[in-house]
Amino acid sequence: MKLRIGGLAAMIVVAWLLPYGLGSYAIHVVNIALIYALLAIGMGLAMGISGQINLAQVAFFGVGAYVVAILTTHNGYGFWAASALALLATVATGLFVGVPALRMQSHYLGIVTLGLALGFLNWITNATITGGADGISGIPLPTLPGIDLSSEYLYYYVELVVCVLGLAFGLFVVRTALGRRLRAMRDDSLAASAMGAQIPLLRMTAFVLASLYGGMAGILYAGLIRYVAPETFSIANMFILLAMVIIGGRRSLVGCVVGAIGLTLIREWLSDFSTYAQLGYGVVVVLMVVFAPTGLAGVPGLVRDAVRRRSRTSGGPRAELRPFTPYEVSPPPDDQATGPLLDIRAVTKDFRGLRALDDVSLSVLPGEIRGIVGPNGSGKTTLFNVVSGFYRATSGQVRLSGRDTTATRPYTLSLLGVARTFQNLRLFSHLTVRENILVALDRTRTHTIWRYVLWPPGVLRQERRLRTQAQELLDRFGLADFADTPPGSLPYGIQRRIEIARAMAARPRLLLLDEPAAGLNGEEVGQLAHMVRSIRDSGTTVVLIEHNMGLVMSLCEQVTVLAGGRVIAEGTPPEVVASPAVIEAYLGDSEMAQDAREAAPPLTATTPHLPSPSPSNSEEAAR
Amino acid sequence: MTRNPAHPRLTLAITAALATALGACSAPGESGSESKSTSGPIKIAVVNAQSGQLSSLGDWEYKGAKLAVDEWNKKGGVNGRKIELKLFDDQGDPTTGTNIARKLDSQGYIAMIGTAESAVTIAMAPVLQQAEIPNITSGQSDKLVAQKSPFLFLNGPTSTTYDTTLAKYLIEDKQHKNIAMITNNGSFGKGEHDAFLKAAKDLGVTPSTDQIVTTDQKDFSSALTKIRAEKPEVIFIGSEEVEAGLIVKQARDLGITAPFAGAAPQGTPVFMDTAGKAAVEGTIVSSPYLSNDVSPAAKKFADAYQAAYKEEAEMHGAKAYDGANILLTALDTSKGATGKKLADAIRATRHDGLLGDFAYDETGVGITQTAIGVIRDGKLVAEQ
């Protein structure tokens, strides 16, 4: 830590003294590089951190620069007043460009934002107010008391301060709650919304952040060059910017800055061979994407991994999964006083011609462990998706503690106390295990991000509290050894446990587990049963979908059987297994049902599974 | 492990910082211009796009300027010193232009020739003015004059001059009343549009239709159909060589027989080749440089150009050749002065060039008239 502070201090001193060693040409190039660095930070926040492909960054840049130019030359505003308005205009543009992101993602979003950037370019080339192709010259010099900004050396310090503050704010966002939610959204927007993140608002936030940095860069550009023309905001420059972000490393803001400054300097150095240089950038970008997708910023990590892999044989304490520490038992709620926690009333869900759920009614009392079984394709996961808000029931009603939640969004349900796991693991793959937990621990509404602008200490205080809680939770689930590893590199059984820990981090009243035992070995199934019981004892109601009949028999007080989208049986495990309808649903295979009944009381590792007529992930296909 | 490895490094950094800070108490900046030496070769820069859409223009200009410099060097240079010409690529990008302007300053270039693109030249102008580097540009936008930089000179007439001459010829000499306009929205086209419209209105004629196309358009039938409906006597065209050629060709295909009238691009071989010989017959051109055989000086230039580059000379090369000659003459008369003295020397230079008699005023414009030519049998000839 002290090493880092020392390095940082040295960097600042070097940056502060840099102008003393540079000629007027070099300082101008550095000034341009800093402007590109700001642009790249904005681009990195939208593309790398939030996963929103944004090819309109150069338009944000242009709006910032042009608004300053127009207001100062046509309307007689002072430079700084015009800058404040320019920033507002850029953020408004950011909101406008962000709207398509609510409807589409990935390359579609790229094409739409590129189209908007082209539209902007066309407008500034044709409109009278922008001076058309001639641009606007004679932008007044920005003034600061006591500092002559016509000297590019002193202008450098203004840019440096803005850049360092911009980078610091960007890093602050990335490393605290908002940034974690943005990154969670990038990795898996569905799971993020199930953890309480309001996806549409976050997408807009990503574009607002990108436009904020673009606008600042535009203002600094207008103050430095004091002339704007359409060529500066061309699509060719957009792709240079894209190259900066990709080469530098889009997931790291520092990488974006390094890429921007590095490529600007290299471009200048190679300016006598610009035709070949442009080809060269293209080749480098392709090589980067293929061989180092995380860019230069990812190279140290790759090297570290390689070294670690080589030295693994040499030993050291091995990370291991530690035992689960049970929750404290809280007194069971009085069934008579409270109504059902989850009440599903005559829910039907149609997918065009296919009826996935047909008049399903189900009620779960507080403190219950409810099993939901049925052959594949019987609608179990669809039911979970309806309860957790991913699907809206075609007809019928879902009630949570008496409140109608049929049309409630997943993030609201999460804040109301519904947590779930997914049949196919949906962990945030580029976040560490700790960060996965932290995303779910954060119970604030997304709109509380205003604090980032108005009251950052509040954010820090919340951050410290969340981190303490995260450590407790990691210790409880025995995951402390893996806290700073990305989940993708861990064994399947551990990932399953992380999913449960993440769901529990949301402190739910109702926990939905979708096939939690799938892929676990016998010992792990035993640990799972222990864990689920403890979770129930702590006061959380559990509903689980499971094919492992042994687990269902031993764990659940009540079992609901679905087949073809209908409830065909409900009752205690022995009752259900004896039901003729259930036996018939499982292909009339009475022997199988017999096995299950025998396996019921003692839980063994070799519990027979109910037959699976089709591959087990087909149920989740329709999301 | 209690020893902190960061401390020595930090202390070192702070010490170094303090030492440097003490050594340089003043604000940072470059001290003097020791690089602008008074001996050795005279460094002159040509700045033009060598890549991108305007690269052919940049190429012609460099060849024209190089030809003039080579001729001077053959005669022994200026004031006994050789002239060193270096080409810089602005990529048609204003930001790159400002980088180059700073570079010229710090590398001791005393003057600059170019660029052909007004936007880049305008972006560079404040930097060059601050660095006191005279610049002879090939742009013709009136915005260049509006910069009011005493270091910015044009090597040809402005759009206003081209189009005022043209409008006078069409309206006063030919008595045309029904004039249509078609221009593009690029820097050149917009300048032509504004200048011609103003000149025509000043003479009491409002164009019957005013069509604007884009610079990368390939099909002009909708604009041309509207023009055809107006049955104009003549059509003013403000567009670069290739696009103008396409417009004229498509106009003839649509049955428009009225002649086109325009500025310099309409007198070039590229324009004639694109449109076809029959289509361009009768095109009226306002240009300071009608053809390579308009004068003995032009013939001599064209022959030298042909000998040096194995290709036919055209107007842009001629303009750059004139500009370079003016600069070198001024250097010669001022005995290798730089900065403000050189700018004053350029302003005082009277040069009988290929484009006409140059006499600069305080606006930086040295030529205020053009000649009217008409294309006959695929050749641009002067109109009597």
From TrEMBL, chain A:
<keyword id="KW-1003">Cell membrane</keyword>
<feature type="transmembrane region" description="Helical">
    <location>
        <begin position="199"/>
        <end position="221"/>
    </location>
</feature>
<feature type="domain" description="ABC transporter">
    <location>
        <begin position="342"/>
        <end position="589"/>
    </location>
</feature>
<feature type="transmembrane region" description="Helical">
    <location>
        <begin position="28"/>
        <end position="46"/>
    </location>
</feature>
<protein>
    <submittedName>
        <fullName>Branched-chain amino acid ABC transporter ATP-binding protein/permease</fullName>
    </submittedName>
</protein>
<keyword id="KW-0547">Nucleotide-binding</keyword>
<dbReference type="Pfam" id="PF12399">
    <property type="entry name" value="BCA_ABC_TP_C"/>
</dbReference>
<feature type="transmembrane region" description="Helical">
    <location>
        <begin position="253"/>
        <end position="270"/>
    </location>
</feature>
<feature type="transmembrane region" description="Helical">
    <location>
        <begin position="53"/>
        <end position="71"/>
    </location>
</feature>
<dbReference type="InterPro" id="IPR032823">
    <property type="entry name" value="BCA_ABC_TP_C"/>
</dbReference>
<dbReference type="InterPro" id="IPR003593">
    <property type="entry name" value="AAA+_ATPase"/>
</dbReference>
<feature type="region of interest" description="Disordered">
    <location>
        <begin position="311"/>
        <end position="332"/>
    </location>
</feature>
<keyword id="KW-0812">Transmembrane</keyword>
<dbReference type="GO" id="GO:0015658">
    <property type="term" value="F:branched-chain amino acid transmembrane transporter activity"/>
</dbReference>
<keyword id="KW-0067">ATP-binding</keyword>
<dbReference type="InterPro" id="IPR003439">
    <property type="entry name" value="ABC_transporter-like_ATP-bd"/>
</dbReference>
<feature type="transmembrane region" description="Helical">
    <location>
        <begin position="5"/>
        <end position="22"/>
    </location>
</feature>
<feature type="region of interest" description="Disordered">
    <location>
        <begin position="590"/>
        <end position="623"/>
    </location>
</feature>
<dbReference type="Pfam" id="PF02653">
    <property type="entry name" value="BPD_transp_2"/>
</dbReference>
<dbReference type="GO" id="GO:0005886">
    <property type="term" value="C:plasma membrane"/>
</dbReference>
<dbReference type="Pfam" id="PF00005">
    <property type="entry name" value="ABC_tran"/>
</dbReference>
<feature type="transmembrane region" description="Helical">
    <location>
        <begin position="106"/>
        <end position="124"/>
    </location>
</feature>
UniProtKB/TrEMBL annotation, chain B:
<dbReference type="InterPro" id="IPR028081">
    <property type="entry name" value="Leu-bd"/>
</dbReference>
<keyword id="KW-0732">Signal</keyword>
<keyword id="KW-0813">Transport</keyword>
<feature type="signal peptide">
    <location>
        <begin position="1"/>
        <end position="26"/>
    </location>
</feature>
<dbReference type="Pfam" id="PF13458">
    <property type="entry name" value="Peripla_BP_6"/>
</dbReference>
<protein>
    <submittedName>
        <fullName>Branched-chain amino acid ABC transporter substrate-binding protein</fullName>
    </submittedName>
</protein>
<comment type="similarity">
    <text>Belongs to the leucine-binding protein family.</text>
</comment>
<keyword id="KW-0029">Amino-acid transport</keyword>
<dbReference type="GO" id="GO:0006865">
    <property type="term" value="P:amino acid transport"/>
</dbReference>
<dbReference type="InterPro" id="IPR028082">
    <property type="entry name" value="Peripla_BP_I"/>
</dbReference>
<feature type="domain" description="Leucine-binding protein">
    <location>
        <begin position="41"/>
        <end position="378"/>
    </location>
</feature>
<dbReference type="InterPro" id="IPR000709">
    <property type="entry name" value="Leu_Ile_Val-bd"/>
</dbReference>
